[in-house]
Amino acid sequence: MSNFVHIYFETRNLLVRQYTMEDLDGLYEVMSNPKVHQFTKDKNHPWDKLKTQQYIEFFIDKNFVTLDCFHGAIIEKASNRIIGLTGLNPYKENEPEIEWKLGVTYWNKGYATEIGKEIVKEAFQTSDIIGIYGMAEPENMASRRVLQKIGMKYLGVSEFRDQKDAFYYIGRL
Ligand SMILES: CC(C)(COP(=O)(O)OP(=O)(O)OC[C@H]1O[C@@H](n2cnc3c(N)ncnc32)[C@H](O)[C@@H]1OP(=O)(O)O)[C@@H](O)C(=O)NCCC(=O)NCCS
């Protein structure tokens, strides 16, 4: 990586930073696996190289630096590999929605929980957001468990982007 790359935050095992074009092959490896999309809106569309490239270019161009709205690469510190993506998407004013997608070989190591807890802590400390939503397909038990583990409250099932999702929420602590 040649230019300065913004690091959003670091945890014990991971760091989340802005994308660089050098992430292309690693992110493609993660996002081209259909299992990653089993419970997401892309379920019939594992990413191809072009989509991955456009996604990275889009977020490099956005150049987010604050945590109220951001998208970044998850790097496993021990291996220095990109293992997935995370971020806060705009949802309601000052109440974004959290997102994670990790490569299959990195599931069930506590990584999403580690990141989610840090996002909740840092985003409330460093921005004006008043709450964070989490949405998961009702059958996505791993995602729902993580939302619960990071301290979110279950609100019930509601319509979200043309499908029924389980809604979770945490307000400013
Ligand atoms: C959802 C996802 C981000 C979770 O990441 P992760 O790093 O594996 O999560 P963690 O290891 O922190 O925690 C997973 C928890 O779910 C539990 N879990 C996993 N699969 C489960 C299942 N089928 N049923 C019930 N619980 C399950 C684990 O046991 C663990 O809970 P525990 O600590 O109480 O044992 C990851 O599975 C993923 O990337 N999935 C594909 C993309 C996706 O669905 N993203 C979410 C919607 S955008």
Describe the structure.
This protein has 173 residues and is an alpha+beta fold. The chain has a single domain (7-129), classed as Aminopeptidase (3-Layer(aba) Sandwich). Helix content is 27%, strand content 34%. The chain has four helices and eight strands, in the order ββααβββαβαββ. The strands form two sheets. Strands 1-2-3-4-5 form a five-stranded antiparallel beta sheet, with helices on both faces. A hairpin with a 2-residue loop joins β4 (81-92) and β5 (95-102). The N and C termini lie far apart (36 Å). Bound molecules: coenzyme A (COA). Coenzyme A (COA) is lined by residues 36, 39-40, 99-102, 107-113, 136, 140-143, 145-146. Coenzyme A binds next to β5, α3 and α4.
3D shape? globular
Strand order of the largest sheet: 1-2-3-4-5
| Overall number of structural domains | 1
Number of helices: 4
The major β-sheet equals: 5 strands, antiparallel
What is the mean pLDDT? 95
Measured by DSSP, the beta-strand proportion falls in 25-35%
Features of the shown structure:
five-stranded antiparallel sheet; N-acetyltransferase; 173 residues; binds coenzyme A; GNAT_dom; acyltransferase activity, transferring groups other than amino-acyl groups; three-stranded antiparallel sheet; Aminopeptidase; alpha+beta
